[in-house]
Amino acid sequence: MLRIASLRYTVTSTASASRWTRVRVFSSTALNNTPDRDPGLALTSVLSNPKEVNGPTSKIPSRAEQIRRLQQHSADINNKQEYDIVVVGGGATGAGIALDAAMRGLQVACIERGDFASETSSRSTKLIWAGIKYMATASAALLSKRLFTNPVATIQDFYGEMAMVLECHQERKFMTAKQPHLCSWIPIAVPFTKWHVSPPPFGHWLFGFFPILSPMVMKFYDALSLFQCPPSYIMLPKKAKEVFPQMAHEDILYASVFFEAIHNDARTNLAIALSAAEHGASIVNYVEMESVIQDGTKKVVGVNAVDRMTGQQLALKAKRVVFAGGPFTDDLRRMETGEATKPAVQGGAGTHVVLPSYYCSSQMGLLDYNTSDGRFLFILPWENHTLIGTTDGKSSAHTLPGPPEDEVDWILNECKTYLSNDLEVRRSDVNCAWQGWRPLAVDPHAPPGAPVSRDHVISENEETGIIFIAGGKWTTWRVMAQQIVDRVVGKSGPKCSTLDAKLFGHDGYEDNLKIKLIQKHGMPEHVAEHLARTYGGQAWDLCGISKPTPIVAGYPYIEAEVIYACREYACTVEDILSRRTRLAFLNKEAALQAIPKVAELMANELGWTKEVTAQQIEAATKYAESYAGPDRAER
Predict the structure, then answer these.
(1) 241 burial class (0-12, 13-18, 19+ CB within 10 angstroms)?
(2) At what angle do helices 210-224 and 132-142 cross, to 10 degrees?
(3) pLDDT mean over 562-585
(4) Which residues of 576-589 are buried (b: 16+ CB within 10 A; e: fewer)?
(5) Cα–Cα distance, 364 to 386 (Å, whole number)
(6) Measured between alpha carbons, how far is 466 from 320 in angstroms, rounded to an integer?
(7) For 452, which DSSP code?
(8) pTM
(9) From CA 391, how far away is CA 408, in angstroms rounded?
(10) What is the tens place of the pLDDT at every residue in 179-220?
């Protein structure tokens, strides 16, 4: 049985003063064992009491040191020490808030109930994209009949949508220019087989002529970034066959090629979190909020939390509390008030399928802009595999990544549209499939008649003082964090400086890093390429740990990464499989095969007992089995 901590706090208040009572309760069931608790969390909360290992650099404290700082802060709950901000949620946005606040000199704590990026932020389509779809929907709305029936609202909506697209272009530039160790350009082809499309995309007649208008549209898209991206271009059938031999070429008139940026989302999230730690933030994974701390009124002045790896309970006082829980934000808000609340977030579920690399060009991706139900579908080369996604359906978010089988089938059927007829897309070729949730947000505290956000929502409960943020895209993580901290500090507070930030791993990174790693350590090229692209300049420290011994055959992941990941706050075998490497996302069977070796390496590094090691293996196996693999899932 998995040994899991359960702790609970009680809060008592009087009119003149407040006092907080901490009650420590251990059980062999899940933390906060309630009927509606996500069962997947039980697989990520094995009590392991890990021994302390150093942080990845001298400037970044160890995870154990981060916990000690939180403990010292909560040792005397009535002291005058308090954080300026406590952030609940360590995805891209929450970690970004911690980084922004720390760079402004604020005292900030950020807690994440799982691993960094363990939910939405690791399950994206891997693009830092500037919103070409939003540009299209904005144009379709502007050119609709509504322009004549309600011109003011239509123009306002168009302006708002295009402002969001411009913001995405600016943030994409920040990522590609300042974070080359994490983010790179990728060309994406849009093939055309006819000059007119019917029924037209986005339900507007003008888009029926997109095959004719596409080159001009793509140049306009380039212009929105002030032509600071690689230029779009036309690819004729002969060149298309050379670059993308998997494509069906018989009927192709031409392909329009534009550029977006691609990244390893989980690694980018971790780099943001470690950068925040480097700037002084108390940021730590596997610390879960259990309740809020209130003063004599309804104002929230902190949170009660628990370290899920040790069972240590924490009480963190703060001037402001920010919820950045993504699609799980409403769960946090229910703890804020202790009762049912008006929903603010609706989960938008998206399934992705991973196929072998031979289904896609290694040089460029492909976009189907007009699928059978009108959604965009990307076919991308990612981590030497083919990534296809995404679907978009409404459902409640949960931790386990298993996707609906009908969505896997839909993706496989749709991707046949542009692939050669003699290239059979088989269900047995699916290495892995997984599902994530995008938080689609509305402001529950907005006055009646207020416009619905098309992007992200920042809202404050005037009674409790808690601010939450939900919605948005990977591309805009930095600006969303800036807006939250701007709101906390006010106009007279310290200004944002994250536009100058170079995220963890930037130092020591260079274009020829891969070659230098090969020359010094004698490793295979695919291993050196992976290490340089994933860790940037930190690859040197990692390679100094041990010889480049593979974790599992056929993949570039090496044993030294497991040991190094423990220094970067990895706590469980599943952390290694899903996010510190991306093995579980790429190949379910390979991930299952790697579990014993990963567990052995982590046990040696973190001092696990045999019992804990066995529990970690059990939990990681159950979690990995929840991904879809080559066999048709029975769901």
Answers:
(1) middle
(2) 110
(3) 98
(4) bbbbbbbbbbbbbe
(5) 11
(6) 7
(7) P
(8) 0.92
(9) 9
(10) 999 999 999 999 999 999 988 888 788 889 999 999 999 999
Cβ atoms < 10 Å from Cβ of 187: 18
In whole angstroms, give the CA distance from residue 375 to residue 70.
45
Residue identified by tokens 């609940």 is 88
Angle (nearest 5°) at CA 413 between 392 and 433: 60
- What phi, psi does 196 have (nearest 5°)? -140, 140
Overall average pLDDT of the 459-475 stretch = 93
**337-375 pLDDT per residue, tens:** 777 678 888 878 899 999 999 999 999 999 998 888 878
Q: Using alpha carbons, list the distances in angstroms from residue 159 to 112, 177, 370, 389, 568.
A: 36, 27, 25, 29, 42
CA distance 480 to 482: 5
Whether 109 and 99 have beta carbons less than 8 Å apart is answered as: no
CA neighbor of 287 nearest in space, from 400, 118, 435, 122: 118
Tell me the residue type at 482.
Answer: Q
User: Residue 572 gets which letter from DSSP?
Assistant: S
Assigned token pair, 433 = 């499939």
Instruction: Determine contact, residues 56/274, Cβ cutoff 8 Å.
Output: yes
Specify the residue for token string 């929105």: 224
Q: What is the DSSP letter of 375?
A: -
For residue 484, which amino acid is it? I
CA 274 to chain centre: 15
Q: Give me the half-sphere count of Cα atoms (radius 13 Å) on the Cβ side of residue 268.
A: 29
**Residue 631: what pLDDT?**
81
